[in-house]
Amino acid sequence: MKLVVVSAGLSVPSSTRLLADRLTAATVRHAGPDADVDVQVVELRDLATDIANHMVTGFPAARLAAALDAVAAADGLIAVTPVFSGSYSGLFKSFFDVIDKDSLTGKPVLVGATGGTARHSLVTEHALRPLFSYLRALVLPTAVYAASEDWGDEGLEGRIERAGAELARFMGAGAEASVSAAVPDTDTTAAIAPRSLKGAITSVDAFQVVPFEQQLAALRQV
User: How far apart are CA 173 and CA 158, in angstroms?
Assistant: First the structure.
């Protein structure tokens, strides 16, 4: 399995990279000792000039092209950004602006963010989650935000472990997706099947559309 980690930290060292590394370690740990997880880290700080040039020319430099290809080929993605002005950084957004629109479709993504105060803790929900949902990625339920005072706190460690377990599970499931894709999910199919006027689920095999006039007449007889 290939795991790509995108870090938008600007300093060396940075709390953003630290969180990315902690999330990576948790994911690899929960994948199990038998899992062959290939980890590649993309430091956007080193690609800042290439990203800007690509936005105005439309042609990625070799280093940026390699990073974009790595993200597209990944089985799972960890994306972590510092909080700037209450949202993701411009560098972080610019990288995902130049990525191919179909690269993240159906890909499990673990999002994280770092900031100086807990007041920005909802940035993962109002900024990061909508961004990756727009790119049709599978954004994991647990997002991790780390404020300055969170480091060393058990609550942060618990969130990191939970998020890593989720990503490991979804990455493992992705390896079986091509096999199970051809098998109908009867539970899901039944759940979305039309219901009769009495509330019973109609047969999935014998799908029948009831005309609106007939449904209305049945309601009038009640």
Answer: 23
| pLDDT at 195 (0 to 100) | 41
pLDDT of 192 > 70? The answer is no
Instruction: Please give the Cα distance from 132 to 144 (Å, whole number).
Output: 15
Q: What is the 3-state secondary structure (H, E, C) of the chain?
A: CEEEEEECCCCCCCHHHHHHHHHHHHHHHHHCCCCCCEEEEEEHHHHHHHHHHHHHHCCCCHHHHHHHHHHHHCCEEEEEEEEECCEECHHHHHHHHHCCCCCCCCCEEEEEEEECCHHHCCHHHHHHHHHHHHCCCEECCCCEEEEHHHCCCHHHHHHHHHHHHHHHHHHHHHCCHHHHCCCCCHHHHHHHCCECCCCCECCCCCCCCCCHHHHHHHHHHC
Q: Which residue has the tokens 């939970």?
A: 162
Count Cβ atoms within 10 A of the Cβ of residue 104 and give its class: 0-12 exposed, 13-18 middle, 19 or more buried: buried
Between 92 and 213, the higher pLDDT residue: 92
Residue 210 has which token pair? 């009831």
Report how far residue 79's alpha carbon sits from residue 7's, in angstroms, rounded to the nearest whole number: 6
Residue 67, Cβ neighbours under 10 Å: how many? 25
